[in-house]
Amino acid sequence: MTGVEESVGIDTSDLDRYVGQSFGGGQLLEPIAVNDIRRWVQGMQYPNPLHYDAEFAATTRFGGIVAPQSFMVNTDIGHGSMPSVFGKIPGSHMVFGGDEWWFYGHTVVPGDQITVHRRHHDYRVAETKFAGPTVFGRGDSVHVNQRGEAVSKQRSTSVRYLVEEAKRRSFFASSMPLPPTWTAAQLDELYERRLAWILSGREGHTPSWTDAEPGLPLPTCPIGPHTIQTFATEWRAFTSVVWGTTKDLWKDFSGIDGGWLPEMTRDDELAKIDPSQGDGMYRGASRGHVDGEAADIVGLPRGYGYGASMGAWALNYVAFWSGHDGFIRHSTIQYRTPPFVGDVTFVDGTVTERREDAVLGVGIATVEVVMTNQDQIVVARGSIEVELPS
To answer: How far, CA to CA in Å, does 226 sit from each of 230, 338, 380?
Structure first.
């Protein structure tokens, strides 16, 4: 590791030996099924009929249901975070910090078999208000189909922090408003805004590249209010958490003994008899998403959302606007804070650039995406480059 000094208070001595190393690990056993795709868009609250309605999809140029580009994180295990988590940091917990994606022009359909190739990339230590010295790790996952074609690459960022320091600072308790209370009238208004967004892109029409002028705003997409039920549905959208769907689940994964708290660990031996003991949400590091007491154990105020879902929301949002003939080529999204139980996430976008890509020979529009909650706190932001017909 170059350019990173040891930070007082957090032990990174075990991390350097993994930097740049490739490793194996879990793979999905079966090809993608159409109901995997349906379950994914349902969990991500993405009502694009191209991905769940067979009758509608048959009328499109695809001839049937296809996976959204966000689905690629669902062809991996660990929500795509495994390559960014390596080595042991005693007394730590992990949340997602962001994702960068590259897509190479291939549409994924039912019947495709995806294999994931993984590599630990690098890490750095930075001071955060939330937990003091914090490790930001990065890693790459390349998703390859049965024809040997690289479909996409994800560079994930994990945020690993010392739980005791986070609890001592009580950052969220002191800086965040109380959980919101929504009236029936407010919920009706939220749904009207959401329905307007759904109707804006449901037919799959694609704007031309020449119409995507810088400054053009995209319709607002409200998601929420988030609840224990919605977070549990997101978790269950991931194919790899279904019993028996993977092989070599944690093989060669250096982060399996990552210094996690005893309350956040799994019993993988017992899980061979009772799969719920290795489930992750029933027992393990994902309990805090749906259990307020478990969230408190890791220094968070209440149930909270998944980074992988936030990444999917951003990709789905731009894909919905760009229609059936648009194609996302690249994205970089940074996650600032999790969405919490009771929050609503508002996804907004603005076209910031329009250019011709000489290598691809296509027109590219760049959309700046910002996610905020009901208190105008920025939850996530980044840019997405989408190919549009010219």
So the answer is: 6, 11, 16
| Single-letter amino acid code for the residue at 373 | N
C-alpha angle 359-145-113 in degrees, rounded to nearest 5: 155
> Is residue 134 within 8 Å of residue 127, measured between CB atoms?
yes
Copy the structure tokens of residue 15.
Answer: 């991390």
Beta bridge partners, 304, equal: 340
Q: Please tell me the distance from the alpha carbon of residue 6 to that of residue 350, in angstroms, as a whole number.
A: 40
pLDDT of the residue at 33: 98
Give DSSP secondary structure letters for 82-132. Answer: GGG--S--TTEEEEEEEEEEEE-SPPP-TT---EEEEEEEEEEEEEETTTE
pLDDT at 150 over 80: yes
156/100 Cα distance (integer angstroms): 6
- The model's pTM is 0.93
Look up tokens 């590599």; give the residue: 119
The CATH superfamily label for domain 16-388 reads Hotdog Thioesterase (3.10.129.10)
Share of the chain above pLDDT 90, in %: 73
- CB contact at 8 A, 114 and 108: yes
Task: Name the 3-class secondary structure at 30.
Answer: coil
Chain segment 311-332, per-residue pLDDT in tens? 999 999 999 999 999 999 999 9
Supply angle C-alpha 138, 141, 144, rounded to 5. 165
pLDDT tens per residue across span 23-68: 888 999 999 999 999 999 999 999 999 999 999 999 999 999 999 9
